[in-house]
Design brief:
The protein is α/β, with parallel strands linked by helices and 484 residues long. It is built from 15 helices and 16 strands. It has helices at residues 11-25, 94-105, 107-113, 118-122, 130-146, 222-229, 244-258, 285-290, 302-312, 319-326, 391-394, 400-404, 414-429, 450-453, 463-471; strands at 3-7, 32-37, 155-158, 166-169, 172-178, 184-189, 191-194, 213-215, 236-240, 268-273, 332-336, 338-344, 350-355, 366-371, 373-376, 442-444. Strand 5 (172-178) and strand 6 (184-189) form a beta hairpin. Helix 1 (11-25) packs across helix 2 (94-105), helix 1 (11-25) runs parallel beside helix 5 (130-146) and helix 1 packs across helix 15 (463-471). The longest helix has 17 residues, at 130-146. It is globular, with a radius of gyration of 23 Å.
Length: 484
């Protein structure tokens, strides 16, 4: 029996666990499953571990749930091609698997089991809060642990994977997780899935600038809330970035300072954007369907795929978030520029070194902007997993220099930056249909698979497809050689 290890107990892990149960209940041989998380199931969504306060609204429809899009034909495949349902083993009927998932793990089933489905429909199917989404994930986990279908429970390990805590021995992954008491649990597996957003990206000088620089994770913590509580009327807060993290933080700031009885006691809030604009993301039928169906994705050039992702998923705001911010437009100023570094300035200020370089400007001209507080919302590092890998594990990538010496892009000269971007692109394009690099044992990285395999793979848009793709490497049938 093969064993699949998943780091992170969020939506992707739950989608894989639920699909594994569906396959087993419908006659397939499935791997053992071990899920490792340092906190709890859905911890990044409930507001108690950073990333959110739990109050913010989910940006994706909740009906894009653990099984969505419930395909008629599974995406299980051999190395040669995707397989249609008529050549799957007879005992595994893919329509039945979709029906099983819909009945047992859909958001609709969650509502029926908890608050009821009628009010949700009558209210126009509102998006839940992040904490309500966490409740859905934990409901699914409880069902998996109850195992009323006798398919075998996933095993859970609560512990933190620390630096170089992941190694390879005898062509198997070995993961060491340390719990709160310092005890180390060791898990071995044939495949490894790394999920979660990663740690926040940092700007040069950010660590040295002190506690008045927050990020998309720490701003939600009790310490971050305490720092915001000290902000005075005459002071300024600069938010760096233009994506969904920026939107969530701006909504938080509006809600936080609206609690002050005097409206004039609100600080000055600025957003620093490379374009000087806040852009809405495309959410028409064709954009949305591209996050669900991927057969045409491989027909696009890499440049076309990158352009689509920029238009719909990177540095853009959902219409719902933009509508909330529009109401506060008189209190938010948007400035153009990229931040090169943060430096502690005079009289307790922070100096932001802003670069105004662009394609139509021959030379960049710098600007220093003084501020009191900074919230870095430039996103999270999907390559952060490299810190967990031992040196021997990194060598499996044949890209040791990239993964060991990954530097911030603005620390590189133009020639180095071009070379590093080429290396990154080469790795991303090479990610396979099962969302892994071409190495053994397999390392599945859905957070990096968007360009190669579909724009929905890194996010919540097609969790069912993510589960299909990853499990395709382990759902065993001798005729189809699913273990290749």
């Amino acid at each position: 029996m093969k064993t699949l290890i998943i780091l992170g107990a969020g939506p992707k892990a739950l989608a894989i666990a639920a699909k594994r149960a569906a396959l087993k209940a419908n006659g397939a041989n499935v791997p053992d499953l071990v899920i490792i998380d340092r906190n709890a199931v859905g911890a990044n969504w409930d507001g108690s571990h950073g990333y959110t306060d739990g109050v913010g609204q989910l940006g994706t429809s909740p009906e894009k749930d653990l099984g969505f899009p419930y395909p008629q034909a599974a995406l299980f495949h051999t190395e040669e091609s995707l397989l249609d349902s008529d050549i799957l083993p007879r005992q595994v009927n893919t329509c039945e698997i979709s029906r099983w998932m819909l009945a047992n793990f859909s958001y609709q089933s969650f509502l029926i089991d908890t608050t009821g489905n009628g009010d949700y429909i009558d209210a126009g199917k509102p998006h839940p809060s992040h904490s309500e989404w966490a409740s859905y994930l934990r409901w699914a986990w409880r069902r998996l642990q109850a195992d009323s279908w006798n398919v075998g429970k996933p095993r859970t390990v609560l512990g933190e994977v620390k630096s170089e805590g992941i190694s390879i021995q005898n062509n198997r992954w070995v993961v060491n997780a340390t719990d709160d008491q310092g005890a180390v649990q060791t898990v071995e597996g044939d495949g490894l899935v790394i999920t979660g957003p990663g740690e926040p990206k940092k700007l040069p000088g950010q660590d040295e600038a002190g506690p008045r620089v927050l990020d998309g994770k720490s701003v939600w913590s009790p310490e971050g809330q305490e720092i915001l509580g000290r902000v005075k009327m005459s002071e300024s807060i600069d938010v760096i970035g233009t994506g969904e993290t920026t939107a969530a933080v701006l909504v938080l700031l509006q809600r936080f300072f609206n609690l002050r009885p005097d409206a004039d006691a609100r600080p000055h809030i600025r957003v620093l954007s490379p374009t000087g604009m806040l852009h809405s993301r495309g959410e028409g039928y064709w954009e949305n369907s591209a996050f669900t169906h991927f057969r045409e994705w491989v027909d696009l050039t890499v440049a076309q795929r990158e352009a689509f992702i920029r238009r719909t998923d990177r540095g853009v705001l959902s219409p719902g978030a933009l509508a909330q911010l529009t109401e506060a437009r008189s209190r938010i100023q948007v400035l153009e520029g990229r931040i090169d570094r943060i430096v502690s300035g005079k009289k307790g200020k922070l100096d932001l070194y802003i670069n105004h370089a662009s394609e139509d400007r021959e030379e960049a001209y710098p600007e220093i902007l003084a501020t009191d507080y900074v919230i870095n919302c430039m996103g999270f590092d999907p390559w952060g997993f490299r810190a967990f890998l031992s040196e021997t594990a990194i060598k499996h990538f044949n890209a040791e220099q990239l993964l060991l010496n990954f530097r911030l892009a603005n620390e590189l000269n133009p020639e180095e930056k071009k070379h590093e971007q080429h290396m990154i692109r080469s790795l991303l394009v090479a990610i396979r249909e099962d969302l892994s690099f071409d190495i053994h044992p397999r390392l599945h990285l859905p957070m990096l698979a968007g360009i190669a395999q579909g724009a929905g793979m890194p996010n919540l848009s097609c969790l069912g497809h993510v589960a299909d793709r990853i499990l395709s490497a382990y759902v065993w049938d001798e005729k189809l050689r699913f273990w290749n």
